[in-house]
């Protein structure tokens, strides 16, 4: 999961570190040159202060010193060379205390590196702008060790990414469902997004928490959609309310809620039709289903592999229907991660779960900190 973006970000941070370290080494060299120039100046001043009568005596002393230096050099050749490890330790300590105040131009360079990577991985532009703003707030004026900055940069970028994400605690979700009986969930999304499988996974989760779900087979448009839901319902031993193909989906939702009330079921999960694209007929159909069922939560199901497309779909559904949360399917085979990093920021609605396989238990709670940590992990 997110293999491509993980590698690219890691490469970018290494590149950033090298650039910042080169700048600091350049500054260090300039400081050393200044010190050397000052020493030479002091030496010249000292020579000026020496009286003429002392010069002859000094020349003799210099000759003696030069002779002694030659003898010392010969002795040094015999002695062992300095321990390289000790020398490296000294250099390491020297570098660790060197501090560099990060400027806006430094942040611009860091952002430029990160921006390229994130754009390549389908992250929305507005998300990038938020990350840039966050990086400036966190980094400008900060004094850090430039030779040991990799971990520091990693943490700052991780936190900036986490700040763009919105999660939803799993236990809070379950508590919300238990607060009302029956709790009605409307599931929406385009064709091929994984709505049917995700509904089955949600029902399995509810069963594991002691809740009794019922499924409303509201997709009366797509061939075999009802049969597919029936297979899952039979395996999970969950009741399913269905009508014939071509019937009114709102009527199916109404009957399912009515059944849940009489049978004292805890949760109603309403499936709906999708289309290969979002058209007016689909929107009007969904509006009617929502108006009749009055759901307590509307969940958008999207395919993580479609990148920017799924984010645009979520935007349209949120504008036209209104959504309360997102679930992204196929996250286990998503190498880029752009949809995960963009959808909650764009819609301002949390990600509930990530689908990570075909099994009923392959639905993992979304945690923004853990996701950012995973992407920025070593």
From TrEMBL:
One of its GO terms (cellular component) is cytoplasm. SUPFAM superfamilies: Domain of the SRP/SRP receptor G-proteins, P-loop containing nucleoside triphosphate hydrolases. The keyword GTP-binding applies. Its main location: membrane. InterPro entries: AAA+_ATPase, P-loop_NTPase, Signal_recog_particl_SRP54_hlx, SR_rcpt_FtsY, SRP/SRP_N, SRP54_GTPase_dom, SRP54_N_sf. Pfam families: SRP54, SRP54_N. PANTHER family: SIGNAL RECOGNITION PARTICLE RECEPTOR SUBUNIT ALPHA. Belongs to the GTP-binding SRP family. This is Signal recognition particle receptor. The lineage of its organism: Archaea, Candidatus Parvarchaeota, Candidatus Parvarchaeum.
